[in-house]
From TrEMBL:
PANTHER family recorded: SMALL RIBOSOMAL SUBUNIT BIOGENESIS GTPASE RSGA (PTHR32120), SMALL RIBOSOMAL SUBUNIT BIOGENESIS GTPASE RSGA 1, MITOCHONDRIAL-RELATED (PTHR32120:SF11)
Gene Ontology MF annotations: GTP binding; GTPase activity; metal ion binding; rRNA binding
GO BP, sorted A to Z: ribosomal small subunit biogenesis
Domain CP-type G: 99-271
Function: One of several proteins that assist in the late maturation steps of the functional core of the 30S ribosomal subunit. Helps release RbfA from mature subunits. May play a role in the assembly of ribosomal proteins into the subunit. Circularly permuted GTPase that catalyzes slow GTP hydrolysis, GTPase activity is stimulated by the 30S ribosomal subunit.
Gene Ontology CC terms, in alphabetical order: cytoplasm
Lineage of origin: Bacteria, Bacillati, Actinomycetota, Actinomycetes, Kitasatosporales
Protein name in UniProt: Small ribosomal subunit biogenesis GTPase RsgA
This enzyme's EC code(s): 3.6.1.-
Location (main, coarse): cytoplasm
Disordered: annotated span: 1-27
Amino acid sequence: MRRYGKNPDEDDIRVRPNSKGTRPRTTIRPKHEDAAEGMVLTVDRGRLTVLVGEREITAMKARELGRKSAVVGDRVAVVGDLSGQKDTLARIVRVEERGSVLRRTADDDDPYERVVVANADQLAIVTALADPEPRPRMIDRCLVAAYDAGLDPLLVLTKSDLAPAEPLLETYGALDLDYVVTNRDDFLTGGVDQIRERLAGRVTAFVGHSGVGKTTLVNALVERQRTTGVVNAVTGRGRHTTTSALALPLPGDGPEGAAGWVIDTPGVRSFGLHHIDPSRVIQAFPDLEPGTAECPRGCSHDEKDCALDSWVAAGHAEPARLDSLRRLLATRERREGD
Ligand SMILES: Nc1nc2c(ncn2[C@@H]2O[C@H](COP(=O)(O)OP(=O)(O)OP(=O)(O)O)[C@@H](O)[C@H]2O)c(=O)[nH]1
Ligand SMILES: [Zn+2]
């Protein structure tokens, strides 16, 4: 699977300046052939902050885009005033095809599932080992969302000074999940390198419930940021005013001049799992998947004849994993955030 960020040279989402003549053009596009390519960093009430080269500009959707949305992480083509000066406004005339989408669940205020992050290739699931207690169900839901969106999950276990990681990791042992264990004291001694390594050259969306230490972690990661440009300008605006995700560059060189991207997602209470087929849910449980071979056709995996019970009874997987799968299947239709 091609994922944005891993092989920027092979990326077919980008519009290369010299691609004229080598590629067929659609009839709509020539109008904006001189458009600049950018990446959406955040969205605030119809105003989008777009990184174009080294410059951060404010833009809005051009009318011709219609209902099509542009979200954080989107590659967009912009025209108009690209100076980035105060009170200037550019127009987004095109949203490039997305390599991946993360959706959030519909809620009472907004009945539609919406894409909140585009083009991420990794999902960092931030969970505290204590205070607050880890929530395996929430982790499972995130895993399902990650697998469904084609993102590599990365379990980030924080506050290791308060509790050991082993019990939780044991539960997920069969999943062969990539994980990092962190704590605040490590950050002070440069201990974020372990996680930095996992983020290098990639676009990683960070999710986690309030209080797990996500902000502490993200700040440690983006701290040594160049003094001008993206981070300071964006964070200076006051996060609380926006429910949008926010793309933050990791210091160093790489695609778009950053060593990788952290996409902080304050507004994502829960992922939209409504659209996910039960047969895809099972993909988040590779330890259980082989056990479904003997299931009756169209098995819900939560019925009397389900073969998973005997699979687990035979010792092929942990009973806790099957419980987790079943809880997930049962709660998939609900709108809960945990
Ligand atoms: N013991 C301990 N406390 C931590 C650690 N990291 C963060 N904290 C504390 O946990 C609390 C929550 O941290 P935040 O970084 O604000 O957590 P958050 O997930 O961003 O939560 P919100 O800001 O509510 O969204 C703060 O009081 C932090 O000081 C850690 O490694 N160990
Ligand atoms: Zn079954």
